[in-house]
Amino acid sequence: MAYAETILEGTVLPDGLLVLDEHMPLPVGRVTVVVRPHESPEQAKRTWWEILQEGRLLLEQSGKSFLTDDDMNQYIAWLHESDHFDELLKRKMN
C-alpha cells in the first residue's frame, strides 16, 4: 500500500525531540522526516531593531541591569585616561 506525503507541523524542543501538533495518519513503522523552520507572517515583518528591543526587554524583566548614560560616560572617560601602558607605548614609538 503506497502513501502520499503528509505535511504536519510541530515543535522541536531543546533536547531535539520533535512534538507534532496532531496525530499522524500513518501506520506504525519507520518514516523519513524532513524538518524546515516555520516562519510566521509576524516574524517576517519584524525588523532587527524590534528583535533587539524585545531581547533587551526580556533581559530587563529577568533582572539584568544595563549601563546608564552617566555610567557609560564615566567608562568612556576612564578609557581615555592615560595609564602605564600608554607611557610604554610612547617610549616604544620614540
Task: Draw up the topology in text.
Blueprint: E1 10-12, E2 18-20, H1 41-45, H2 48-61, H3 69-80, H4 84-93
Antiparallel strand pairs: 1-2
Please tell me about this protein's structure.
The protein has four helices and two strands. With 94 residues, it is mainly α. It has a two-stranded antiparallel sheet. β1 and β2 form a beta hairpin. The longest helix is centred in the middle third of the chain and has 14 residues, at 48-61. The radius of gyration is 27 Å and the shape is elongated. The mean pLDDT is 85.
Given the C-alpha coordinates, what overall shape results? elongated
Q: What are the low-pLDDT stretches, counting only 5+ consecutive residues below 50?
A: none
Order of helices and strands: EEHHHH
Number of strands: 2
As a whole number of angstroms, the C-alpha radius of gyration is: 27 Å
Helix fraction? Answer: 40-55%
Strand content: 5-15%
How would you classify the helix and strand content by structural class?
mainly alpha
Give the termini distance in whole angstroms: 85 Å
Biggest sheet: strands side by side, in what order? 1-2
Mean pLDDT: 85
The helix count comes to 4
- Characterize the biggest β-sheet: 2 strands, antiparallel
